[in-house]
Amino acid sequence: ALRYRKRDWPQRTFFNPGERNVEPPPLSEQHKIIIPPLHIKLGLVKNLAKAMDNNGPAFKYLHETFPRLSVAKIKEGVFVGPQIKQLFRDPKFEKLLRSKEKQVWDAFYQVSTNFLGNDKAENCKDLVEDMLALFQAFSWNMSLKIHFLDSHLNFFTDNCGQVSDERGERFHQDIANMEKRYQGNWSMAILADSCWTLIRDAPHVHYKRQAKINRKSEAY
Protein backbone atom coordinates (compact mmCIF):
# COMPACT_ATOMS: atom_id res chain seq x y z
CA ALA A 1 0.00 0.00 0.00
CA LEU A 2 2.97 2.33 0.57
CA ARG A 3 3.79 2.18 -3.12
CA TYR A 4 0.50 3.88 -3.95
CA ARG A 5 1.12 6.76 -1.52
CA LYS A 6 4.85 7.39 -1.91
CA ARG A 7 6.37 8.22 -5.29
CA ASP A 8 9.61 10.07 -4.51
CA TRP A 9 12.16 7.78 -2.90
CA PRO A 10 15.28 9.55 -1.56
CA GLN A 11 18.69 8.57 -2.79
CA ARG A 12 20.80 6.38 -0.54
CA THR A 13 23.15 8.50 1.60
CA PHE A 14 25.12 5.74 3.32
CA PHE A 15 26.90 2.64 2.10
CA ASN A 16 27.27 -0.40 4.31
CA PRO A 17 29.41 -3.41 3.41
CA GLY A 18 27.42 -6.41 2.31
CA GLU A 19 24.37 -4.42 1.21
CA ARG A 20 23.22 -3.65 -2.29
CA ASN A 21 24.60 -0.16 -2.58
CA VAL A 22 26.34 -0.21 -5.97
CA GLU A 23 24.52 1.54 -8.80
CA PRO A 24 25.66 0.12 -12.16
CA PRO A 25 25.80 2.40 -15.20
CA PRO A 26 22.63 2.37 -17.33
CA LEU A 27 22.61 0.13 -20.38
CA SER A 28 20.80 2.74 -22.47
CA GLU A 29 20.13 6.45 -22.38
CA GLN A 30 16.95 7.48 -20.65
CA HIS A 31 15.43 9.31 -23.63
CA LYS A 32 15.86 6.17 -25.78
CA ILE A 33 13.80 3.94 -23.48
CA ILE A 34 10.30 3.20 -24.79
CA ILE A 35 7.79 1.57 -22.48
CA PRO A 36 5.57 -0.85 -24.45
CA PRO A 37 1.94 0.29 -24.04
CA LEU A 38 0.53 -3.11 -25.00
CA HIS A 39 2.29 -4.89 -22.13
CA ILE A 40 1.11 -2.21 -19.72
CA LYS A 41 -2.44 -2.80 -20.94
CA LEU A 42 -2.10 -6.58 -20.56
CA GLY A 43 -0.75 -6.13 -17.04
CA LEU A 44 -3.74 -4.02 -16.03
CA VAL A 45 -6.17 -6.61 -17.38
CA LYS A 46 -4.28 -9.31 -15.53
CA ASN A 47 -4.79 -7.55 -12.20
CA LEU A 48 -8.46 -7.00 -12.98
CA ALA A 49 -9.06 -10.65 -13.88
CA LYS A 50 -7.31 -11.88 -10.74
CA ALA A 51 -9.59 -9.74 -8.56
CA MET A 52 -12.81 -10.88 -10.24
CA ASP A 53 -15.19 -13.24 -8.50
CA ASN A 54 -14.62 -16.69 -9.99
CA ASN A 55 -18.26 -17.57 -9.40
CA GLY A 56 -19.59 -14.31 -10.78
CA PRO A 57 -21.49 -13.96 -14.06
CA ALA A 58 -18.75 -11.89 -15.70
CA PHE A 59 -16.11 -14.56 -15.08
CA LYS A 60 -18.39 -17.27 -16.51
CA TYR A 61 -19.08 -15.08 -19.52
CA LEU A 62 -15.35 -14.81 -20.19
CA HIS A 63 -15.12 -18.59 -20.29
CA GLU A 64 -18.07 -18.73 -22.71
CA THR A 65 -16.66 -15.99 -24.94
CA PHE A 66 -13.18 -17.52 -25.11
CA PRO A 67 -13.75 -21.29 -24.91
CA ARG A 68 -10.21 -22.06 -26.05
CA LEU A 69 -8.83 -20.39 -22.91
CA SER A 70 -8.61 -22.63 -19.88
CA VAL A 71 -10.10 -21.61 -16.55
CA ALA A 72 -6.58 -21.33 -15.12
CA LYS A 73 -5.58 -18.79 -17.77
CA ILE A 74 -8.72 -16.74 -17.21
CA LYS A 75 -8.07 -16.72 -13.45
CA GLU A 76 -4.54 -15.46 -14.07
CA GLY A 77 -5.72 -12.92 -16.64
CA VAL A 78 -3.74 -14.32 -19.57
CA PHE A 79 -5.33 -12.46 -22.49
CA VAL A 80 -4.08 -10.96 -25.74
CA GLY A 81 -4.70 -7.60 -27.36
CA PRO A 82 -7.50 -8.64 -29.79
CA GLN A 83 -9.41 -10.27 -26.95
CA ILE A 84 -9.30 -7.05 -24.93
CA LYS A 85 -10.59 -5.08 -27.91
CA GLN A 86 -13.38 -7.61 -28.30
CA LEU A 87 -14.42 -7.08 -24.67
CA PHE A 88 -14.35 -3.31 -25.15
CA ARG A 89 -16.94 -3.69 -27.92
CA ASP A 90 -19.07 -6.17 -25.97
CA PRO A 91 -21.85 -4.39 -24.00
CA LYS A 92 -23.02 -7.66 -22.44
CA PHE A 93 -19.72 -8.15 -20.60
CA GLU A 94 -19.97 -4.67 -19.12
CA LYS A 95 -23.50 -5.34 -17.85
CA LEU A 96 -22.41 -8.55 -16.10
CA LEU A 97 -19.67 -6.83 -14.11
CA ARG A 98 -20.29 -6.09 -10.46
CA SER A 99 -20.29 -2.48 -9.23
CA LYS A 100 -16.62 -2.41 -8.15
CA GLU A 101 -15.47 -4.37 -11.18
CA LYS A 102 -17.36 -2.02 -13.50
CA GLN A 103 -15.71 1.02 -11.92
CA VAL A 104 -12.26 -0.39 -12.58
CA TRP A 105 -13.22 -1.55 -16.08
CA ASP A 106 -14.53 1.90 -17.01
CA ALA A 107 -11.38 3.55 -15.66
CA PHE A 108 -9.20 1.06 -17.55
CA TYR A 109 -11.14 1.73 -20.76
CA GLN A 110 -10.60 5.48 -20.40
CA VAL A 111 -6.85 5.03 -19.86
CA SER A 112 -6.55 2.60 -22.79
CA THR A 113 -8.48 4.87 -25.14
CA ASN A 114 -7.26 8.31 -24.08
CA PHE A 115 -3.66 7.52 -23.12
CA LEU A 116 -2.32 4.14 -24.26
CA GLY A 117 -3.78 4.48 -27.75
CA ASN A 118 -3.21 6.87 -30.64
CA ASP A 119 -4.87 9.81 -28.89
CA LYS A 120 -3.54 11.37 -25.71
CA ALA A 121 -6.14 13.40 -23.85
CA GLU A 122 -5.24 16.55 -21.96
CA ASN A 123 -6.53 15.05 -18.72
CA CYS A 124 -4.68 11.74 -19.19
CA LYS A 125 -2.81 12.26 -15.92
CA ASP A 126 -6.10 12.60 -14.04
CA LEU A 127 -7.46 9.47 -15.74
CA VAL A 128 -4.41 7.45 -14.68
CA GLU A 129 -4.61 8.76 -11.11
CA ASP A 130 -8.30 7.90 -10.87
CA MET A 131 -7.62 4.35 -12.06
CA LEU A 132 -4.74 3.89 -9.63
CA ALA A 133 -6.92 5.25 -6.81
CA LEU A 134 -9.41 2.46 -7.52
CA PHE A 135 -6.59 -0.08 -7.51
CA GLN A 136 -5.48 1.19 -4.11
CA ALA A 137 -9.04 1.16 -2.75
CA PHE A 138 -9.38 -2.50 -3.70
CA SER A 139 -5.98 -3.30 -2.09
CA TRP A 140 -4.48 -4.63 -5.31
CA ASN A 141 -0.76 -5.29 -5.40
CA MET A 142 1.48 -2.74 -7.08
CA SER A 143 2.97 -4.62 -10.00
CA LEU A 144 5.87 -3.34 -12.06
CA LYS A 145 3.59 -2.33 -14.93
CA ILE A 146 1.33 -0.35 -12.61
CA HIS A 147 4.44 1.24 -11.11
CA PHE A 148 5.37 2.64 -14.53
CA LEU A 149 2.02 4.42 -14.73
CA ASP A 150 2.31 5.64 -11.16
CA SER A 151 5.88 6.95 -11.09
CA HIS A 152 7.16 7.17 -14.68
CA LEU A 153 4.30 8.71 -16.61
CA ASN A 154 6.70 11.09 -18.37
CA PHE A 155 8.42 8.12 -20.04
CA PHE A 156 5.43 7.53 -22.31
CA THR A 157 5.35 9.22 -25.69
CA ASP A 158 2.60 11.54 -26.90
CA ASN A 159 1.33 8.88 -29.30
CA CYS A 160 1.62 5.46 -27.68
CA GLY A 161 0.00 3.80 -30.67
CA GLN A 162 3.05 4.52 -32.83
CA VAL A 163 5.41 2.61 -30.54
CA SER A 164 2.99 -0.15 -29.60
CA ASP A 165 3.77 -3.69 -30.72
CA GLU A 166 0.14 -4.59 -31.34
CA ARG A 167 0.89 -5.08 -35.03
CA GLY A 168 3.42 -7.76 -34.14
CA GLU A 169 0.88 -9.43 -31.91
CA ARG A 170 -1.66 -9.25 -34.71
CA PHE A 171 0.77 -11.17 -36.92
CA HIS A 172 0.99 -13.95 -34.33
CA GLN A 173 -2.80 -14.04 -34.10
CA ASP A 174 -3.10 -14.34 -37.89
CA ILE A 175 -0.63 -17.21 -37.90
CA ALA A 176 -2.54 -18.91 -35.08
CA ASN A 177 -5.79 -18.60 -37.04
CA MET A 178 -4.15 -20.15 -40.12
CA GLU A 179 -2.80 -23.03 -38.05
CA LYS A 180 -6.28 -23.59 -36.68
CA ARG A 181 -7.77 -23.42 -40.17
CA TYR A 182 -5.44 -25.99 -41.72
CA GLN A 183 -5.19 -28.12 -38.54
CA GLY A 184 -1.54 -28.98 -39.06
CA ASN A 185 -2.02 -30.31 -42.59
CA TRP A 186 0.44 -29.32 -45.29
CA SER A 187 -1.09 -27.33 -48.12
CA MET A 188 0.21 -25.00 -50.82
CA ALA A 189 -2.62 -22.61 -49.99
CA ILE A 190 -0.93 -21.70 -46.69
CA LEU A 191 1.66 -19.57 -48.50
CA ALA A 192 -1.03 -17.78 -50.50
CA ASP A 193 -3.05 -17.20 -47.35
CA SER A 194 -0.02 -15.66 -45.65
CA CYS A 195 0.67 -13.40 -48.65
CA TRP A 196 -2.89 -12.10 -48.66
CA THR A 197 -2.55 -11.34 -44.96
CA LEU A 198 0.48 -9.16 -45.68
CA ILE A 199 -1.28 -7.45 -48.59
CA ARG A 200 -4.22 -6.51 -46.39
CA ASP A 201 -1.77 -4.76 -44.04
CA ALA A 202 -0.92 -2.25 -46.81
CA PRO A 203 -4.16 -0.28 -47.31
CA HIS A 204 -2.42 2.45 -49.36
CA VAL A 205 -1.59 0.00 -52.17
CA HIS A 206 -4.21 -0.26 -54.89
CA TYR A 207 -4.73 -3.46 -56.85
CA LYS A 208 -6.66 -3.96 -60.06
CA ARG A 209 -8.30 -7.12 -61.26
CA GLN A 210 -6.37 -8.72 -64.06
CA ALA A 211 -8.11 -8.19 -67.40
CA LYS A 212 -9.17 -11.35 -69.17
CA ILE A 213 -7.90 -11.57 -72.74
CA ASN A 214 -10.40 -12.64 -75.34
CA ARG A 215 -8.51 -15.09 -77.51
CA LYS A 216 -11.22 -15.12 -80.16
CA SER A 217 -10.98 -11.36 -80.76
CA GLU A 218 -7.21 -11.64 -81.20
CA ALA A 219 -7.66 -14.31 -83.82
CA TYR A 220 -9.66 -11.95 -86.00
Description of the structure:
The chain has 220 residues and is mainly α. The protein folds into two domains: 34-163, no CATH class; 165-201, no CATH class. The protein has 13 helices and no strands. The protein has helices at 2-5, 37-51, 57-65, 71-76, 81-88, 91-96, 99-114, 124-137, 144-151, 160-163, 166-182, 189-200, 215-219. α7 packs antiparallel against α8 (124-137). The chain starts with a helix and ends with a helix. The relative contact order is 0.11. The mean pLDDT is 77.
What's the tally of helices?
13
> Per DSSP, what share of the residues sits in E-state strands of 2 or more residues?
under 5%
Shape: globular
Which consecutive residue ranges, at least 5 long each, have pLDDT under 50?
Answer: none
Biggest sheet character: none
Structural class: mainly alpha
**What fraction, in percent, of the residue positions are helical?**
55-70%
Report how far the terminal alpha carbons are from each other. 87 Å
Order of helices and strands: HHHHHHHHHHHHH
- Computed over alpha carbons, the radius of gyration is 24 Å
Overall pLDDT metric: 77
Number of distinct beta strands: 0
Structurally, the number of domains stands at 2
Could you list some keywords that capture this structure?
220 residues; mainly alpha; 2 domains
Ordered list of secondary-structure elements with their pairings:
Layout: H1 2-5, H2 37-51, H3 57-65, H4 71-76, H5 81-88, H6 91-96, H7 99-114, H8 124-137, H9 144-151, H10 160-163, H11 166-182, H12 189-200, H13 215-219
